[in-house]
């Protein structure tokens, strides 16, 4: 049968091809060239290049995330209220958002020669706008997975593709950005914007690949609750979803740990190891090994289940980071242990993407109303708070330990602080994250299969979904 004639049959079956599942990960690959770029290098750009105090930088991240707290539900409501068009419900919003996000990413790495107060205003304004545009890019991308397939193995493969894409972007940004920046002239402010332009262009191209190759094929009932997109509806969808709460708590810890690692690695290489040129090489090994390991996620999920391998990953990573904190710093032992620790972060973060799609379906089954973007927005908000937490931990530590920008030799307190947040903080975050996942996230794979079967049959927890059109708003019970 030709590929063309096979497409309707595949659409009816709800099963994407292996090619589609693999190319779906290009969305996170593109996302990393903008999201992870900012997380890894904006702190250094603001502190070392523009002279903004490290404490103020931590405040900038915090204020912009508070702003995001109000904007994310609005973005989610608008996306959920859209009708399904010829190109789908989520794909067009994702692609348009990616183009604008690239432009705003470049903007965040610009800074005119202004008085310090106006530099701070510029940084806050630019990063706040970036957060809004990010919501219109990543929320639809994430929601899209839930309407590509309901099959557990498909979702595990797409989760693996996403994490490989994310780690691939972190890998390239981690080892390529500094050399690209050096090529343009690291000492010039405009060079940071030029290097960001190169990264953002790759990001947009990657999103385009995802857009062209993905299809929204799962048939869902959108006739119920279509018009209900208020803050009250957002709160109902989020706060009656216990699996989502467990996922949010775990993500808050694990993403902040990953961001702290990426943010502080450049400081650790420059000051603790005495050679900033080691940062790209360490990232090359650490993220490269993690990306290869994440490819095993579908097989691991099939054998042991998502929740179990996520918890094991957390505990292995915690042990490696704790040992790395305790033992004296030696280049090769540090590289081995930080790599194992990063693998421990990468595995649960990779499985997370499958968890998100499951919590979207759980929300529909539990409340009787389909609101993909509202669930995704709540999850993504936890990632944004994690960014802020990472900045508070990283930049806050630099401020508290007396870090002096561009000073060749830092104090012993600062060096100890850099190593502490790079190793001990992820160890603690991984342990607590595993506890949250074990006790709060209560959606097993077997329970999800039952939920998926009910949704395919047009049922929710308390009856037939379409019956609500006549009966009125469903009463969700905890």
UniProtKB/TrEMBL annotation:
The keyword Hydrolase does not apply. InterPro entries: MFS_2, MFS_trans_sf, Na/Gal_symport. The chain crosses the membrane at residues 51-71, 92-110, 116-136, 164-184, 190-211, 244-269, 281-297, 309-327, 333-356, 385-404, 424-443. One of its GO terms (biological process) is sodium ion transport. Keywords: Membrane, Transmembrane, Transmembrane helix. The keyword Membrane applies. GO terms for molecular function: symporter activity. One of its GO terms (cellular component) is plasma membrane. This is MFS transporter.
């Amino acid at each position: 049968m030709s590929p063309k004639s096979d497409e309707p049959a595949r659409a009816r079956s709800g099963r994407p091809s292996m090619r589609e599942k693999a190319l779906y990960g290009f969305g996170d690959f593109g996302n990393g060239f903008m999201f992870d770029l900012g997380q890894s290098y904006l702190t250094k750009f603001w502190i070392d290049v523009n002279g903004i105090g490290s404490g103020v930088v931590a405040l900038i991240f915090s204020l912009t995330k508070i702003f995001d707290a109000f904007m994310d539900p609005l973005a989610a409501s608008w996306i959920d209220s859209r009708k399904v068009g010829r190109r789908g419900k989520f794909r067009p919003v994702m692609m348009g958002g990616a183009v604008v996000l690239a432009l705003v990413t470049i903007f965040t790495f610009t800074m005119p020669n202004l008085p310090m107060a106006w530099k701070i205003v510029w940084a806050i304004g630019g990063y706040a706008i970036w957060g809004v545009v990010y919501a219109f890019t990543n929320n639809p991308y994430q929601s899209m997975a839930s309407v590509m397939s309901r099959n557990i193995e498909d979702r595990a493969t797409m989760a693996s593709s996403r994490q490989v894409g994310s780690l691939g972007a972190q890998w390239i940004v981690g080892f390529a950005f500094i050399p690209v920046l050096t090529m343009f002239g690291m000492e010039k402010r405009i060079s940071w914007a030029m290097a960001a332009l190169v990264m953002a262009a790759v990001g947009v191209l990657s999103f385009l690949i995802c857009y062209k190759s993905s299809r929204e094929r799962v048939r869902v009932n959108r006739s119920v609750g279509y018009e209900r997109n208020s803050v009250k509806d957002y709160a109902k969808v989020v706060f009656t979803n216990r699996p989502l709460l467990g996922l949010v708590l775990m993500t808050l810890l694990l993403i902040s740990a990953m961001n702290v690692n990426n943010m502080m690695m450049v400081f650790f290489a420059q000051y603790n190891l005495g050679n900033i040129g080691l940062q790209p090489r360490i990232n090359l090994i650490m993220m490269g090994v993690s990306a290869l390991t994440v490819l095993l996620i579908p097989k691991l999920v099939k054998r042991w289940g998502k929740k179990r391998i996520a918890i094991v990953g957390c505990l292995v990573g915690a042990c490696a980071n704790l040992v790395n904190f305790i033992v004296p710093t030696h280049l090769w032992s540090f590289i081995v242990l930080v790599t194992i620790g990063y693998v421990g972060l990468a595995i649960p973060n990779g499985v997370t993407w499958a968890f998100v799609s499951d919590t979207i379906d759980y929300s529909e089954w539990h409340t009787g109303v389909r609101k993909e973007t509202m669930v995704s927005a709540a999850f993504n908000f936890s990632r944004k708070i994690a960014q802020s937490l990472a900045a508070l931990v990283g930049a806050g530590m630099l401020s508290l330990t007396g870090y002096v920008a561009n000073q060749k030799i830092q104090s012993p307190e600062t060096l100890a602080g850099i190593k502490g947040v790079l190793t001990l903080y992820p160890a603690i975050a991984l342990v607590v994250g595993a506890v949250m996942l074990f006790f709060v996230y209560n959606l097993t794979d077997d329970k999800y299969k039952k939920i998926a079967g009910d949704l395919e049959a047009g049922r929710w927890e308390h009856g037939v979904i379409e019956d609500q059109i006549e009966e009125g708003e469903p009463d969700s019970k905890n």
